[in-house]
Amino acid sequence: MKLQRKNRLRATALGALAVSGALVLTACGSDDNTGADAGGDKTSAAASNIKCDDAKGQLRASGSSAQKNAMDLWVKNYMAACSGVEVNYSSSSSGEGIVAFNQGTVGFAGSDSALKPEEVAESKKICKTGQGINLPMVGGPIAVGFHLEGVDKLTLDAPTLAKIFDTKIKKWNDPAIAKLNEGAKLPDEPIQAFHRSEDSGTTQNLGKYLNAAAPSDWKYEAEKKWPAPGGQAASGSSGIASQVKAVDGSIGYFELSYAKSQEITTVDINTGGAAPVEATSENASKAIAAAKVKGTGKDLALDLDYTTKAEGAYPLVLVTYEVVCDTGNKADTLGTVKSFLTYTASAEGQKVLTDAGYAPIPEAINAKVRETVAGLS
């Protein structure tokens, strides 16, 4: 049974790669945006709709590792259309990306959480005539992946997840897990829970979900730095995924495309609705569609509902923002920033994400993003 499931997962992952091109899963900080393109016709079609406009030279960006696979696809398509333009996205963490943005070393930053007030204040030193704003660009589920020999399907709820990551539940055959998985042969083995070692927007979004859905069991503030004692740390989404892939008895959290590409089985979440919900792009989209814009002015930060019980809505989601200056952008990169983000927010740019395990931003919000990008100066 497990071998058959692995084969099915392998076929799914390879199919996604064939459609969307190579997902480059490199070490943190890599700028390698190359890879074999098994879907050349699709890439060419997407590239043909890209408007290069005033794009020129090199554009550097950095931040969220959760959106690294999305950036790989976008950068490949964009550079195929705009010859002579180079876009380098360095996958590190949301925290490092915002620091780089506020130091003026990148044209934009990727972050899984909206800027804090103090980060906005700091951005005014770089943006000169303006400030940093949040543009929602990538949506998707935060997958909870696990590796447990003999178990190929697992359901957990928010309180149980909270206790696992807070090391209050230490064994896989704990009664709370067994109650949610009747009939499963859960081993009397220790749980090895992995979390991010560096500041991470994905960590903060997991915290927001646990705060909202399990307030009695998760008492920590939703911050980018991992707050709970115990557990084991790994760097980047790719680092956690690699550990979960290798270590029996492990569990960790990362963006869904890492689970797909490394054939990691993911947890279904019991939301209290009619049935447990699988981590899929479609199910995440159902949750993100209910998001409301809470930012003011040109800022488009979103308010997500982590406690939804809507049928088929996967509640553990994140939205990755591209952080840019609304005004005061550097003249040598402004044209490329506007051209590139116009593409990523386009219907074509969002469409290529679905095959890679992401959830496109709802069109009503995406239209506001395109309007804001057009007005950057």
UniProtKB/TrEMBL annotation:
<keyword id="KW-0592">Phosphate transport</keyword>
<dbReference type="InterPro" id="IPR050962">
    <property type="entry name" value="Phosphate-bind_PstS"/>
</dbReference>
<keyword id="KW-0813">Transport</keyword>
<feature type="domain" description="PBP">
    <location>
        <begin position="55"/>
        <end position="348"/>
    </location>
</feature>
<protein>
    <recommendedName>
        <fullName>Phosphate-binding protein</fullName>
    </recommendedName>
</protein>
<comment type="similarity">
    <text>Belongs to the PstS family.</text>
</comment>
<feature type="signal peptide">
    <location>
        <begin position="1"/>
        <end position="27"/>
    </location>
</feature>
<keyword id="KW-0732">Signal</keyword>
<dbReference type="InterPro" id="IPR005673">
    <property type="entry name" value="ABC_phos-bd_PstS"/>
</dbReference>
<dbReference type="InterPro" id="IPR024370">
    <property type="entry name" value="PBP_domain"/>
</dbReference>
<dbReference type="Pfam" id="PF12849">
    <property type="entry name" value="PBP_like_2"/>
</dbReference>
